[in-house]
């Protein structure tokens, strides 16, 4: 899921396991996933299933499945069904299910790795956790700065290049000390990018299903694409914020907290149904109130919570007068179609902005 | 006291599970009930016109029913089924059932909605019912009494239904018996399922609907597999487990609507976990608003022919 692998690899490797890195999601892994997944299941299931084939081919002997709680969304059953599917196809592997309610098997597995010594395990865990924490904070910072500088940069592509360099540095760094000192360096590097200070880029809030918002392969790298076209895209969730929120219940968003978003959404959508529907709606309202130029809603085709929430989004768009674009993604979605729709949407936003600024002057 | 007030209940989705309960609750409080009747093409079309195209067929059908009622009633009853069972495991409604009142407000802003939030994690069912009744102007004691009577009547209704079904089952012993799996709102709505039961009986089959199995039968089977947390799906899994052990069942038909999220997962669980080593022929029918009757007929005929052939060649 996006750049999450940097933090998670650091964490798991320092817990004493070897991590088998599969290929990043691509057309080939997706096709394998689609071939074996149930037809009507949502896109993230198919993509992640394809990834699993990739890592199993490369020799992984244990798969970690996330999810499996009492959810109304299908995500809670991903691990269970994917595991049985892979076993049926003849793959042999150990499976560990990570879910909030039942951490026992995970803990016992970790203990086994550290020759059953609690002190060693805890020391190991603390080190791994701090390292992963620092790495993920830095990645999140670098990505955020890249999102902000990209629309106004004078030499196109500079921020993306810098981001890639920084990600490589962060990934290969093993010392917590040096990671700590890296923060100002990253900030400095981004201020070094020449910016066009006169332009005021359009601001778009990205909401929807978490996997579609976060994974660039699935959403056709919409954030970077729009960034190079001079539009600032603010996703409601980034890979690392997703991780913090679902592991240590820490909300890292300063602009609009999850709690605030839920409160805003409650009159329109009273219950969160397991996905990010309620939070998404909250962010959409927040964006409307803060004067964003538009809202883009990404979801996998047939997503249960987001499909149900769709009329509510359209209603918000009408009552707050904010343009809203819904893009539903599946394995047949092509980049050209998505880019055309986004392009047309951005044109509308530009037109609206010029119209409203003119009428204000007049 | 409330004799002039009419409450409308759309005949779709959870209607097929809980209508007897709601009906007796409201009538004991003195309200008149109006349902929207059976599904027709024009109702379904009205629903399809306003609901997002990706939503499942029963949801589109629901809004069609709701629109057909809206001008004749004082309130439209739109329940919100969040958590329907707390112990031993939490059982939830699907996201569409959880968001139903919110969707209604967004799609049909002029509707007078009467909601009932059932969330057992927060409060017992009786409390939710009393709250709703108080919003309508009833007194607490009155509402509690109405709830208890309604609950009893609902229990009798369920017992009657399974008794009637088991009596009917004994009739067709020499016919091919086919187990039918699917949500009540598909299996009982003969417009949506193209009169599936009748089509199968015309092919000289006897159909065992999964909802006519008794609750005890299903509950004794459930511990054999890991549970799911969707309330309506759990029932289907239990029924599939039960069908596996019934010797006279010679085929399974699984009816699911296109875009049913829970269905795509439970289908796989049935295939991968429950019927893993089982040789019962099964047919999965996915229906949506474009499904044609002829195509369905062909599939059913060939399925039944296959079962016959299998029986003839059986040692």
Question: TL;DR?
Answer:
Chain A is α/β, with parallel strands linked by helices and 362 residues long.
Compile the SSE list and pairings.
The complex is a heterodimer of chains A (362) and B (315).
Chain A: H1 4-14, H2 27-36, H3 43-57, E1 62-66, H4 78-88, E2 94-98, H5 104-113, H6 118-149, H7 158-172, H8 176-191, E3 202-208, H9 210-214, H10 222-228, E4 231-235, H11 239-247, H12 258-265, H13 277-289, E5 294-300, H14 304-320, E6 324-329, H15 335-361
Parallel strand pairs in A: 1-2, 3-4, 3-5, 5-6
Chain B: E1 6-9, H1 15-28, E2 32-35, H2 41-50, H3 57-69, E3 75-85, E4 91-92, H4 95-98, H5 100-107, E5 113-119, H6 125-135, H7 140-169, E6 176-181, H8 184-187, H9 196-202, E7 205-209, H10 215-221, H11 231-245, E8 249-257, H12 261-274, E9 282-287, H13 293-313
Parallel strand pairs in B: 1-2, 1-3, 3-5, 6-7, 6-8, 8-9
Antiparallel strand pairs in B: 3-4
- Helix count from the secondary structure assignment of chain A: 15
Question: Which quaternary structure do these chains form?
Answer: heterodimer
Query: What order do the helices and strands of chain B follow?
Result: EHEHHEEHHEHHEHHEHHEHEH
Number of domains of chain A: 2
Class of secondary structure makeup of chain A = alpha/beta
Q: Runs of chain A with pLDDT <50, length 5+? A: none
Number of helices of chain B: 13
Identify the strand order in the major beta sheet of chain A.
4-3-5-6
Residue share in β-strands of chain A: 5-15%
Fraction in beta strands of chain B: 15-25%
> First CA to last CA of chain B: what distance?
69 Å
Counting DSSP E segments of at least 2 residues, the number of strands of chain B comes to 9
How far apart are the first and last residues' alpha carbons of chain A, in Å? Answer: 48 Å
Bin the helical content of chain A.
55-70%
